[in-house]
Amino acid sequence: MTAVKQESAPSPKAPPPLLDVRDLRVTYGSGPSAVPAVRGVDLRVEAGRKLGVAGESGCGKSTLALALLRLLPPSATLSGEILLDGEDVLTMKWGRLRAVRWAGASIVFQGAMHSLNAVHRIGDQIAEPILLHSRTAPAAARRRAGELLEQVGLPAARADAYPHELSGGQRQRVMIAMALACDPRLIVADEPTTALDVMIQAQILRLIEQLVADQDLGLIMISHDLAVLSDTCDRLAVMYAGRVVEEGPAKQVYEHARHPYGHALSAAFPRIGDLSSRHAPRGLPGDPPDPAALPSGCTFHPRCPVALKSCATEDQELRDAGRDRRAACALVEPGALGTPGPHGGGESTRSTP
Ligand SMILES: Nc1ncnc2c1ncn2[C@@H]1O[C@H](COP(=O)(O)OP(=O)(O)OP(=O)(O)O)[C@@H](O)[C@H]1O
């Protein structure tokens, strides 16, 4: 019998992800005082998917968000690739970049009161990017602003209001309406619910989730609050000192972090509906490092409760941590279960007091 060689059918080429960030680096300034705020970040977001980016203040979250649309100050130097629908934002000509802002991707900033212009009616402010990006007539842009307000749960008539006439939650809805004005494919929400009370925060998060699902958008949500992100997002990336140190399915990262920093960050927030002492929030001692003077080896080692001696000298890359997860920790082995955190694997030799 002759063996028949089976020709494998060519696999259909998968479309590129909506956003594919490769080895992104951002440095403010130059010379000895240079601040490496983002140090080699890789991220992917597909249409209809939600990626949460978490980390303490100063870890580079906002720099990352602003870099995605090249909104950083001139002192910032960027390298790597930011592929939005396959097109590199970092090498785009100025005219193309202007078209991509708002229409390709748009940002919802924290603190709506500071982002809205106090002396213009909100309908005019929502209509402005529409007028800038299309040949829409002013009256039609105003009508569209009313529709967008209704989409985010406000009456169209609120278009005539000034920002100070709205509550904090309503203003944040206006910011979301504005972000949607030019039908972007990707929304970047930087601390969209900070400064809102818990009930309003929950409403805004549900609104964002609904819009992402209805319009098949990609979402990057940035927050220091891992609990909020795990509740809203599909995947989570945890940043420390300008790098992603842990990445994976949101609930897994929140509940069973593989990196000691992810573990410490998730322990710092109470579990919703679980007030037992086992899950009482615990703080993380010490401060994040100064990006201009990073510790040697793993940048987390001076604060790490399970650091090995080698962590003081050996840097750690993100590696496979099993179950669709990656972590940058010497204690993580591919496919291993459990966490290298204080409750998990391996003998630890603390290298610092
Ligand atoms: N324009 C700038 N010039 C110089 N350094 C900057 C500038 N903007 C931010 N940095 C520094 O870059 C680092 C990252 O800051 P970034 O604001 O991105 O962090 P973050 O995680 O968003 O913090 P936060 O949650 O407090 O906003 C910090 O050390 C910050 O001081």
UniProtKB/TrEMBL annotation:
Coiled coil: none annotated. It is found in: Cell membrane. Keywords: ATP-binding, Cell membrane, Membrane, Nucleotide-binding, Transport. CDD domains: ABC_NikE_OppD_transporters. GO terms for molecular function: ATP binding; ATP hydrolysis activity. GO terms for biological process: peptide transport. Residues 276-296, 316-353 are annotated as: Disordered. Residues 328-340 have a biased composition (Low complexity). The keyword Membrane applies. Residues 19-266 form the ABC transporter domain. It comes from the Bacteria. One of its GO terms (cellular component) is plasma membrane. It is a peripheral membrane protein. InterPro entries: AAA+_ATPase, ABC_Ni/Peptide_Import, ABC_transporter-like_ATP-bd, ABC_transporter-like_CS, Oligopep_ABC_C, P-loop_NTPase. Residues 316-327 have a biased composition (Basic and acidic residues). Belongs to the ABC transporter superfamily. This is ABC transporter ATP-binding protein.
